[in-house]
Design a protein that fits this description.
- This protein is of the alpha/beta class and 347 residues long.
- It contains 15 helices and ten strands.
- It is elongated, with a radius of gyration of 32 Å.
- GO terms for molecular function: carbohydrate derivative binding; isomerase activity.
- It comes from Lithospermum erythrorhizon.
Amino acid sequence: MGSLPLHEQHQKNHSLSSSSTTTTPIDQSKLLTLFKTQQKYLNHFFQNLDLQQTLSFTQTLLNCKGTIFFTGVGKSGFVAQKISQTLVSLGIKSGFLSPTDALHGDIGILGNQDLLVMFSKSGNSEELLRLVPCARAKGAFLISITSVENNGLMGLCDLNVHLPLERELCPFDLAPVTSTAIQMVFGDTVAIGLMSARNLSKHEYAANHPAGRIGKTLIFKVKDVMKKKEDLPVCKEGDLIMDQLVELTSKGCGCLLVIDDEHRLVGTFTDGDLRRTLKASGEGIFKLTVGEMSNKNPRTIGPDAMAVEAMQKMESPPSPVQFLPVIDYDGVLIGIVTLHVLVSVGL
């Protein structure tokens, strides 16, 4: 395919640019008005929501013996997917069922103990109306969540929830921006209601998010992240400082852990202590033992403490530290946890 001659290409580009929509700078007062108007529309939703319908809907989800499936078309479909994912994160069996794919085989996943929740602003989406008889034939319990009164889905479902919508924020009252906002608020609030009713603990929630920071905060213990055994930079009280320089620098902890013959922690000696001792003693450092210059009252932590607690302890007054020796109930040294390791695992 040949390219247009240069003068024709210029005329074409000029035509496209001249026909494109012109833009104007964002007006701060108009933007503020939009936010306040959206707030007004959301307040209309909160003030007019039928709480009895909402209670019946939430209780139905709580009593579900099977899987709670969500479906929707377009923007409502995205909301349905998000609400489903929220429930899954709470340990509730849920999934998203594409209305189009359902009619091409995916409806086989529905059973007679399942719920099918259909999000739709109008309640008249052709894809959902076609899905209803097929889902009912599978024995699923059908629920519609709509904003337009007297719509097609309402007469076909077992339970209906009306989400009051004053109008869309869009100046043409067309773009689904307010309707999807109230769908999201409604679905997520119901999800937290289910979370409360199921008495989900913080640790149970964290177990569903092992890779996220909240999961790591509530799951990882000190014993899961500490260095131990041959990785520990240990020495005895009587060891000369200069004889332990390799141990001090090679284990990547920035310190020496001073122990007695029973492997109990006596104190710590850091690379900072080395610099201060060298500055104060000069050549006298060759005759000093680690025990003489060590900190005899270091911060410590137990192996069963939460890793996040170790980080908090490191950062606590009077001054932050970079490591914590890990000792058992008898004061025996069993490990060391460093700030570097805590940060590297995502805490």
